[in-house]
């Protein structure tokens, strides 16, 4: 879900670099990308524009913490703003027993399925005794479907396939549910393919006779912008108290979730993440924001990095790299620092824009192999790789359980890296080095190297 938005924000943020402060200049491209990403994720243009403005004023002039890159810092700010936009901490239902909930929404949005899921969820988590009332007088199949769900969840059901007056059904259902000692009464209403006057009139009338505590709009996230319009119409007619956003497991572009809350001010309270009864949860704005950004947990990554990487050591390395006398022993020690952070897979997963990147066992195996090869060398050989004649390479290969060609490859890549560092000495190189540091933190990007 939301992969494309994640990827785009990731790209935009990678381009941010700076010298300790977020400025209009170093943020411009990234913000443009953020706006584009939001628009192509189907976020309403007004929402996107306001959002970017807010991010900008929030970011400008902020000091970039020493061990956090500007990109990461911006991600954190965007994350917090997104969570706010999505309505953090507004997902509670009325806390009362009995509780009456009326479900509204378009045909196929997942209304009936969600009625069953909600009954199950509230019975399990909040100890309610649910009743499901079928108020759809047009589709007998919808009544059958709800009855089936009620049976599966072991809750009370009321429906009348011969009655055409929904208000009567609702009132009788209510009485029957009370008599059956239910304290959560969920009314599943009829949907239409589109919003029309008839439907709106019907749910207005129904609302009057049901007197619900909650009116929950069920909206299909795959509908994108259209879902936002639908939400607005329903909200105008019956003042919805919450939204259940369904089908978030699909390839929805995510814009619906973003725009819906800010265009209607109706909080998203629950989300459907699959067809099964338990693929349903309360809506967590902060988690959704993190997921949209694919940032995983940047903050905790940064904290871990701070604890683990010895700043002085990192500085010494950067200095060595600048002077281009970085040797295999330094390389080994860098790699061990990275390893202290945790497995590659878990680190990559925490990085913004990397959530889609599959760094798996392969990369970790490569890293372990590289380490083994270097460890099979003598200290002298590590400091002066030129000493490694073919017979020595053979010994190293045998000692680390690899083939000679693997040793050769490692040495070749190491030599290339050194050449690059040499080129980077002097004026232009210093600039590059700085940019690298700004992007990757001091010691510039060594963690990436084992990718060889
Ligand atoms: P209604 O017409 O609004 O009552 O819609 P239904 O409850 O009959 O759901 C329509 C279709 O969407 C059914 O095939 C459901 O299984 C499916 N559906 C509902 N919620 C979700 C969801 O969160 N994820 C997925 N993948 N499918 C869902």
Task: Quickly list its features.
452 residues, alpha/beta, Four Helix Bundle (Hemerythrin (Met), subunit A), Rossmann fold, 434 Repressor (Amino-terminal Domain), 8 strands, 9% strand, disordered C terminus
Write the layout of secondary structure elements.
Blueprint: H1 3-14, H2 24-40, H3 45-59, H4 70-85, E1 99-105, H5 111-126, E2 130-135, H6 140-153, E3 156-158, H7 166-179, E4 184-189, H8 197-210, E5 214-220, H9 225-238, E6 242-246, H10 255-264, E7 268-272, E8 280-282, H11 285-293, H12 298-308, H13 311-323, H14 328-340, H15 344-350, H16 361-375, H17 379-383, H18 390-400, H19 404-424, H20 426-440
Parallel strand pairs: 1-4, 1-5, 2-3, 2-4, 5-6, 6-7
Antiparallel strand pairs: 7-8
Helix pairs in contact: 1-2, 2-3, 3-4, 4-11, 5-6, 7-8, 9-10, 14-16, 16-18, 18-19, 19-20
The structure holds guanosine-5'-diphosphate.
Residues 105, 107-113, 191, 246-247, 249-250, 272-275 line the site of guanosine-5'-diphosphate.
Question: What does it look like?
Answer:
- This protein is an alpha/beta fold.
- Helix content is 58%, strand content 9%.
- The protein has an eight-stranded mixed beta sheet with strand order 3-2-4-1-5-6-7-8, sandwiched between helices.
- Mean pLDDT is 78; it is low at 296-300, 349-359 and 435-452.
Q: Give a quick account of the main beta sheet: strands, pairing sense, barrel closure.
A: 8 strands, mixed
Overall domain count: 3
Ligand inventory: guanosine-5'-diphosphate
Low-confidence stretches at least 5 residues in length (pLDDT < 50)? 296-300, 349-359, 435-452
What level of helicity do the residues show?
55-70%
For the secondary structure, the number of strands is 8
The portion of residues forming beta strands comes to: 5-15%
Annotated CATH topology of the largest domain: Rossmann fold
Distance between the termini: 31 Å
Question: How do the helices and strands follow one another from N- to C-terminus?
Answer: HHHHEHEHEHEHEHEHEEHHHHHHHHHH
Query: What's the rounded overall pLDDT mean?
Result: 78
Q: CATH superfamily of the largest domain, called what?
A: P-loop containing nucleotide triphosphate hydrolases
Radius of gyration: 29 Å
């Amino acid at each position: 879900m939301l992969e494309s938005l994640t990827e785009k924000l990731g790209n935009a943020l990678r381009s941010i670099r700076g010298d300790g402060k977020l400025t209009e200049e170093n943020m411009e491209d990234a913000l443009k990308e953020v706006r584009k990403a939001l628009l192509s994720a189907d976020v309403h243009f007004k929402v996107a524009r306001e959002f970017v403005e807010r991010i900008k004023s929030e970011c400008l002039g902020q000091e970039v913490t020493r061990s956090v890159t500007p990109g990461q810092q911006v991600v954190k700010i965007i994350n917090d703003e997104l969570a706010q936009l999505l309505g953090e901490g507004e997902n509670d239902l009325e806390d009362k027993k009995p509780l009456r909930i009326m479900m509204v929404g378009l045909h196929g949005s997942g209304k009936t399925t969600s009625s069953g899921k909600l009954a199950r969820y509230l019975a399990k988590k909040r100890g309610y005794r649910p009743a499901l009332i079928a108020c759809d007088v047009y589709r007998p199949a919808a009544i059958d479907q709800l009855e089936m769900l009620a049976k599966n969840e072991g809750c009370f059901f009321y429906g009348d396939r011969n009655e055409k007056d929904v208000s009567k059904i609702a009132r009788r259902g209510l009485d029957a549910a009370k008599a059956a000692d239910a304290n959560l009464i969920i009314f599943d209403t009829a949907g239409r393919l589109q919003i029309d006057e008839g439907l709106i009139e019907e749910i207005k009338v129904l609302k009057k006779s049901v007197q619900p505590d909650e009116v929950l709009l069920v909206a299909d996230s795959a509908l994108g912008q259209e879902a936002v319009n639908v939400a607005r119409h329903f909200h105008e007619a019956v003042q919805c108290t919450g939204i259940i956003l369904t089908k978030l497991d699909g390839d929805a572009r995510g814009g619906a979730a973003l725009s819906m809350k800010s265009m209607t001010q109706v909080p998203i309270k629950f989300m459907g993440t699959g067809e099964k009864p338990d693929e349903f949860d309360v809506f967590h704005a902060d988690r959704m924001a993190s997921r949209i950004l694919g940032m995983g947990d940047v903050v905790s990554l940064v904290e871990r990095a701070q604890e683990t990487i010895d700043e002085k050591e990192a500085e010494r390395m950067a200095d060595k790299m600048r002077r281009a006398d970085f040797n295999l022993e330094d390389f080994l020690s860098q790699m061990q620092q990275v390893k202290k952070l945790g497995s590659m897979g878990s680190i990559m997963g925490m990085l913004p824009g990397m959530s889609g990147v599959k760094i798996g066992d392969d990369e970790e195996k490569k890293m372990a192999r590289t380490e083994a090869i270097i460890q099979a060398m003598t200290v002298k050989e590590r400091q002066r790789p030129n000493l490694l004649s073919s017979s020595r390479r053979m010994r190293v290969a045998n000692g680390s359980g690899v083939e000679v060609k693997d040793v050769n490859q490692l040495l070749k890549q190491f030599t290339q890296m050194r050449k690059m560092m040499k080129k980077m000495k002097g004026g232009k190189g210093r600039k590059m080095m700085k940019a690298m540091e700004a992007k990757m933190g001091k010691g510039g990007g060594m963690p990436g190297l084992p990718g060889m």
